[in-house]
Amino acid sequence: MEKLWEPFELGKLQLKNRLVMAPMTRSRAKENGTVNELAPEYYAQRASMGLLISEGTQPSPEGQGYPSTPGIYTNAQISSWKQVTQAVHDANGKLFIQLMHVGRMGHPDNIPTHQKAVAPSAIAPEEKIFTKKGMKDIPVPRALTVDQIEDTINAYRKSARAAIEAGADGVEIHGANGYLIHQFLGENSNKRHDEYGGSIQNRALFALKVAKAVVEEIGPQRVGFRISPMNMLGGVNEGENGAALYHYLVSELNKLNLVYLHMMHVGHEEVLADIRKTWKNSLIVNRAGRKMTDVSLDLDNENADLVSVGTWALANPDLVERLKIHAPLNEVDKATVYVNNGAVGYTDYPTLN
């Protein structure tokens, strides 16, 4: 595990170790999409990790899918995030804000405009979603027009600039886990007959246009991109040519010189090996199902430059200190992960001290 504690140069950022906090939805934002008053403390508590990636943050009202998730597209939201970034920097940490447009994984009850969610095609994921009125079926979304796709790309561009104005060290584009960009990549979720659908190249076009727009706005050294090959979350299936799709996508993202690629790895070792060989910049790997004793496995095997963890960081604000001395970890309280009970299950997890 020694390699985990080596400093690392991520673009122009000097990270004090190679442990990354993965983005985790917490559903504690206010009605206007600003983060709550405890968010600065929550993130600063975990600033001993090399890099923090924020919870998914919508780039537009249409990008919201779940109740009480934050945005980064209004002045009030920017101001609230400034308090978070300042607290993290005061604790000698680094923070990227994740830009997450959920696409079809939403419900009118949760969307500020109360319209249907948008997606590449009018195909529902056949799943339920939590709303303030309880669990409901996710309705069939609206298929984006070409003009609306351009508007959505521009929303990513503007929200990336807003994140930098808020003091973030960079942004991570969420292209994974069944959300909008992943829906464009899916063979079953994208049935378009224009330049955004059909072939591997066409299904990857939206992802690449979003990445290019964000890079043009804030520079490649401030931009990461998250993928989850063949993860099937949200019912998205890339099809039999999924490995080839990701080879193409990663090869094209390479040309934009993004500072990192963040891979949610769910067991396709050959895909990880190909991405490691293809991707020229820093690679973060989040390996599902590993034991805590294997947290540095992909570093030790040289499959990754950094590794990210989710719930372990959620439940252990002093995760770095605990790992260094092999101390026992707090268990996550699943009942409070998405419930706003103030400090409970958020900033009240105990440290060793």
UniProtKB/TrEMBL annotation:
Cofactors, names only: FMN
All residue ranges annotated as the NADH:flavin oxidoreductase/NADH oxidase N-terminal domain in the record: 3-330
Residue spans crossing the bilayer: none
Cellular component terms per the entry's GO annotation: cytosol
Keywords, comma-separated and alphabetical: Oxidoreductase
Highest taxon above the source species: Bacteria
UniProt GO molecular function: FMN binding; oxidoreductase activity, acting on the CH-CH group of donors, NAD or NADP as acceptor
A Pfam short name: Oxidored_FMN
Record keyword Nucleotide-binding present: no
Family designation: Belongs to the NADH:flavin oxidoreductase/NADH oxidase family.
Protein name: NADH-dependent flavin oxidoreductase
Gene: nemA
